[in-house]
Amino acid sequence: MSPNVPLLNDYKQDFFLKRFPQTILGGPRFKLGYRAPSYIYANQIILFLMPWIWGGIGTLLYQFGILEDYYTAALSGGLMLFTAFIIQCTSLHARNKSVTVERMLATDILAEEDEHEFTSCAGTETIKFLIPGKKYIANTVFHSFLAGLMCGLGTWYLLPNRITLLYGSLGGTVLLFIFGWITLCIGEYSLIVNTATETATFQPQDTYEITPLMRPLYIFFFVSVDLAHRLLIMFIVSAGTVIISYFIPNTVGVVLFMTGLGFLLSLNLSEMVFSFKCRIETKSKALPSGSDKQFIWKRCFFYIIVLVLALLETGLLHHFAGFSQICKTSPQAIVGYLLTILLIALWILREIQSVYIFGVFRNPFYAKDVQTVTLFLEKQTGLMRIGVVRWILLDLVSPFAMIAFLSLDSSLQELHSVSISVGFTRAFRMVWQNTENALLETVIVSALHLLSNADVWWNKNLDTGIRLLLVGIIRDRLIQLVSKLKFAVTVLLASWMEKKRRKSTTSLCIFNIVFSPFVLVLIVISTLLSSPLLPLFTLPLFLVGFPRPLQSWPGTVGTSACLCPDTVYYCQMIPSLTTALQSAMAAGSLGLLPGSHYLGRFQDRVIWIMILECGYTYCCINIKGLELQETSCHTTEARRVDEVFASAFEQEEYTRVCSVNEHFGNVLTPCTVLPVKIYSDARNILSGIIDSHDNLNEFKGDLIKVLVWILVQHCSRRPSIQDTAYQNEKMGKASLTAPPALNTSPQTESSEDTKSINSETLDDWPDDNVFGDETTIKKGNQEKDQLKAFPGIHLPIPGSVESRVVDDHSIGTAPESSLYKAVMLGYPAVDKGKQEDMMHIPLMEFSCSQSHLLSLPEEWTSSCLPNSKIREMSSLFPEDWYQFVLRQLDCFHSEENASNVVEDIGKDSVLKDFYIHAVMTCCFSLFGIDNMIPTPGHILRVYSGVLPWSLALDWLTEKPELFQLALKAFRYTLKLMIDKASLGPIEDFQELINYLEEYENDWYIGVVSDEKWKEAVLQEKPYLFSLGYDSNMGVYTGRVLTLQELLIQLGKLNAEAVRGQWANLAWELLYATNDDEERYSIQAHPLLLRNLTVQAAEPPLGYPIYSSKPLHIHL
């Protein structure tokens, strides 16, 4: 990476310097980027200080003893309300005022888009610029009232006497008074004058004008704490107590309600409702079938049993068990000991499932060298059994043990406060929602109660439910704090390790070390707010980001992605990957914490997995696929990912038992490998095969054989032909066929005839231009355009057959004048009458009645080539291969005397002539008339569907089905040539049949850009092959995709590192509009994985090529 990569380019720097002060001050624009009249700035200052003026008047009246404090607040609030209405009405009048629109010539094409022309201090343009106004009248009224209320409360809150009594310092009073009123002015300006752009934006358009309310909301939070916190809390407590006491007066009923409700809310109810809906709507295509239905009912039956047992246990223990304060011998203490043993056992069983313990020490029980699926499954058999034991302890034993602990608590004897209801409702739900965390919290509460004195406030003033709630909050914040500290240290190390930018980042590193206490305070604040730690431009300059949900992005997951041809490979692997994740999560190899991120790697594919939510025996995830076209930054980070995984999963047998993770400082920690059914991608250079003279010499002969096999197979599988033949036989009709030109009267071959055809073929394409067909196509088009010069004359394409309608009642030979006419090429001139006599073709019957089962479609039997050329090339037709292919057909094996039927069909010369004509015409279309050896460039062009123009090609393209069959035969022949060169020559016809049947059943041979290639991938064809050309190396390449079960390496990412980098990405793109593709914050870094993290962000900020809908995994 160049050391001159800018954080912001020059244009964005100027833009940012204009926007940032506007955000700090709440909306005033004191830097416009162009010359503006002085009254623009003066008006903004007056509007900004207006709340302070009215508040200052009220403050003076209070300080002089003229008004009481509440009258002072009412006066200031009323004046501000009146001012707000005046401001909004002025804006509304300016917008509704009609003005004359004149077109003005721009003198500077580079002028700012937001440049305005001001005419006077109170002109319409000035008012529109200063006060844009509200979209809705309701917001005009609401925001004005809110402005008055905030000014009144702010005046009362900032009275100097109250501040002095609170802090007892004159200096503190002055500072708080000044900065407090500046804060109020900022909030008021954004509410009633003009709103600044926020530094984090979820939606590009603020439809309902929510943004102006943000700053006043923060002010109300601080002011309301000192005004009405006691009243508010007492109201909530009283109302909650009345409601609970009124509806559930019995303690047993309350406990049963908490248990049942907590269990139901921890289930995946949305998916269950959808399953039942599909069950009722039997006509729905989304209806699960077979084993899926049975699995759904089994799961519902399992949930019902667990719910009944939980309710029975809770009710019986609460009703019959004796209640006493917890001590070392009480029943609740005994259950606490059992929970401690369960926690230790589950922790051990979970840690040995992953490759690293604590992410640092290598697990001695994990397989050292994992290369193949078979070897991995053999070595993981013991760990999988341990995983089953862990699942039983976690999902069946632990919840019932914790329910017993809660049911035996003495706090449930009398429900007289909301705190008990809230605490225990949350506790009974967490038992099922997140069993592992709930178990840890319960053990901590039990241990603290046993080890501490009974008179401590923790035991005396707090009930068990509130203790569990506090421990849960502390646990969550501690985990975030550790992750944020690790992320901050990683950013510092990443900045220091970049040698090219070390000079520019050294000062920032020193700054962080010197002011480390303040940095720690920022990290703690970010942790308490559960907001991302934002590293500005991913440098060690930390800010507290805006609080946002764990999934970081708004809207429905999986609705947007940057789709491309490579997306299909991720679509194919999702079902198998989901199954593998199910096993790993159930065994404990992967954590089940919402907001966690995992990175998977296989060959050139990078998989990003995010846990959206978790519950009892289920988990919801989102899977993203990153681009396969690796850029330099992508390659650098992908190489480091490979190194991290290689050091964990590809160790030698003699490695130390408990080695240390060499990449502990990386944001990626290896977890496990997953066996997934996926395509492996192999690319080979075909030099020495496709350009071999011997192979090319055999190519045309092999193509004729493959064409014969494909056409026979295709016709034998056409049900319409068989049905027509059956109906004709049943009605007693004789089938009439028109034989191809091969059986017509002999005609002398002339050199001009051949020369004319050869002049219209394109066999002389240069090999150095693989797809250079522009000039040849133009030549063909010019010849076609010449025919348009004679609109009054009907001129068929030279060499084509003009068919006429045959009378249905004609039997035997039809009239010669009503049958086929062939127009030969114009060299040499032939008498028209003589030509017609020569080209009359009688209708012929098949000699075998079963030949209709293999008959070609009628349009495929028309002629477009000289008879002489057809007769010349017919000698190349492999009659013995034709007979062998007929004997291999399955459609006659069920009939009596099948061998005789096949023999009779083979002797049918009319049917054979049809196949000779179709096969040879297809060959002419693919190669041209000249019997020359094809070149590698010609083979690549035809393989890609770019055929040389000729009359035969026009004939072939008019028959799309036959064209696709010919192209398919050509591609099969190329694959056959490669296999013969790699595996050896073919011994007999049966081996060739085996090759072709394998291609037909197990392979898709085509072009990567074809739609059928995507369909083959989704259908999970075992093998796919494509031919290509590497212009950089100047070689022909072959690409083979093989579907097999392979291992995907999976690691866990630091969730706070991901959230922090995504927060910076949102800040840069949405606020600073820093979309430079070469900006510093997306440059590759091995520790932070910046480029991969940016790719995985939700579009339009990121650009994953695949993003799944929420996937529900049942554990």
UniProtKB/TrEMBL annotation:
Alphabetic keyword roster: Membrane, Transmembrane, Transmembrane helix
Domain of life (superkingdom): Eukaryota
Compartments in which it is found: Membrane
All copies of domain Pecanex C-terminal, residue ranges: 955-1108
Region listing for Disordered, in residue ranges: 736-775
UniProt keyword Transmembrane helix, yes or no: yes
Keyword match Membrane: yes
Residue spans crossing the bilayer: 39-64, 70-94, 136-159, 165-186, 217-248, 254-274, 295-312, 332-349, 508-529
Membrane topology: Multi-pass membrane protein
Compositional bias ranges of the Acidic residues kind: 761-771
InterPro entries the record matches: Pecanex, Pecanex_C
Major location (coarse): membrane
Matches recorded under Pfam families: Pecanex_C (PF05041)
Family from the record: Belongs to the pecanex family.
UniProt name for this protein: Pecanex-like protein
